[in-house]
Amino acid sequence: MISGPNAKACTVWSRAQRIICGVVVLALGITAAGQQPAKPDQLEDQVQELKQEYEATTQALSLRIAALEQQLEKQREAARENKTGTISAAELVAEQAAGKVLSGNSNQVGAKFQGQLSSAPTYDFIRDADQRITKLQQQVGSFEFHGYFRSGYGLNSEGGQMVAFQAPGAEAKYRLGNEAETYAELIFVDNWLNPDRDSDKAWAKCEFMIEANTSNSANSANFPDGIGNDQFRFREAFVQMGNVIENQPNAKFWAGERYYRRQHMDINDFYPLDASGYGGGVEDLDLKFGKLALAFLNSARPDITTQYGNLAKSTIDARAYDIKGPLGLWAMWFDYATSKGGTATAANISVPSGTRIPTTDGYAFGFRHQKLEWHGDGFHSFSFMYGTGAASNFSSNGSGVVIPNPSLYLDSSKQFLITEQLLYQPNDRFAIYPQFLYQRTTDGIPHHEWNEWVSFGVRPEVFFTKYLSLAVEGGFDYVKNPNVAGQNFTNVLGPYDGWLRKITFAPQIGAGRKYFSRPVLRAFVTYANWSNGLKGYVGGVPFQNRTSGLTFGVQSESWW
Question: Short name of one Pfam family for this protein (predicted)?
Answer without folding.
Answer: LamB
